[in-house]
Amino acid sequence: MVEVSASILSVEKQESLKTFYNLEAAKINYFHIDVMDGKFVKNNTLDLMIEYVRNIKNISNLPLDIHLMVEDVKSNINDYLDFNPNIITFHLEACKDSKNVSEIIDYIKQNNIKVGIAIKPETKIEEVFKYLPFIHMVLIMTVEPGYGGQKLIPETIEKVSKLKNYIEKNNLELDIEVDGGINLNNADELKKAGSNIMVVGSSLVNSENYTETVKELCKI
């Protein structure tokens, strides 16, 4: 079964509390928090996401799925430690070298939080293979990170298949999360490729019935 991580990037501020409540009532599995610094990607959501997470923690016990699209990874990890997130995912492309990647993995684990590594569409999936025994999830971006409402890049689906095959051949246990342009028209193809967690943003938040949309995604 597919799990749904609801991206709150496109949630209107004035409707945010109501939207968060309705998303939880629709039985999403995670709140997906898109943390952007205006440097690693053009958009800047640093203050907004902290505000949203505070509000979510006041009304919900659902797990937080933190996605850091930032240059200063460690500083942004520290910003979220007090919120006790389920997982913190950082971008491979934000790291200087392999040593830096390993240091960040260890730092997140030392705080009793699961670790994910994200990659942009142009990054080869093979670049994450050596880190797989030490992490809990790979997030494959199916659009260019930075803003919501984009169309899924079809070529990224092949990366999901390659990763799934590698995981199975090497008897590893990892989640494969996909993020960007995901909707009811392409979710089945992503699941067949090997994804088990789908980040869904505008196609869920803008849908007429959250419960039905989540139910359909989970059935896929």
Give a short summary of the structure.
36% of the residues lie in helices and 20% in strands. The protein has 220 residues and is α/β, with parallel strands linked by helices. The mean pLDDT is 96.
Ordered list of secondary-structure elements with their pairings:
Blueprint: E1 3-7, H1 16-25, E2 30-36, H2 46-59, E3 64-69, H3 73-80, E4 87-91, H4 98-110, E5 114-119, E6 137-141, H5 156-169, E7 175-179, H6 187-193, E8 197-200, H7 202-205, H8 210-219
Parallel strand pairs: 1-2, 1-8, 2-3, 3-4, 4-5, 5-6, 6-7, 7-8
Helix pairs in contact: 1-2, 5-6
Overall description:
It is globular and about 40 Å long. The protein contains eight helices and eight strands. α1 (16-25) packs across α2 (46-59) and α5 (156-169) packs parallel to α6 (187-193). The protein has a single domain, classed as Alpha-Beta Barrel (TIM Barrel). By secondary structure, it is α/β, with parallel strands linked by helices. Helices cover 36% and strands 20% of the residues. α5 (156-169) links the parallel β6 and β7 (175-179). It has helices spanning 16-25, 46-59, 73-80, 98-110, 156-169, 187-193, 202-205, 210-219; strands spanning 3-7, 30-36, 64-69, 87-91, 114-119, 137-141, 175-179, 197-200. Strands 1-2-3-4-5-6-7-8 form an eight-stranded parallel barrel, surrounded by five helices. The longest helix has 14 residues, at 46-59.
- Helix fraction by DSSP (H/I, runs of at least 4): 25-40%
* Span of the ends, CA to CA: 7 Å
CATH architecture call:
Alpha-Beta Barrel
Find the CATH superfamily: Aldolase class I
Mean pLDDT: 96
Overall shape: it is: globular
SSE succession: EHEHEHEHEEHEHEHH
Computed CA radius of gyration, to the nearest angstrom: 16 Å
Strand order of the largest sheet: 1-2-3-4-5-6-7-8
Total count of helical runs of at least 4 residues: 8
Number of domains: 1
Can you tell me the CATH topology?
TIM Barrel
Q: Which structural class should the secondary elements be placed in?
A: alpha/beta
Number of strands: 8
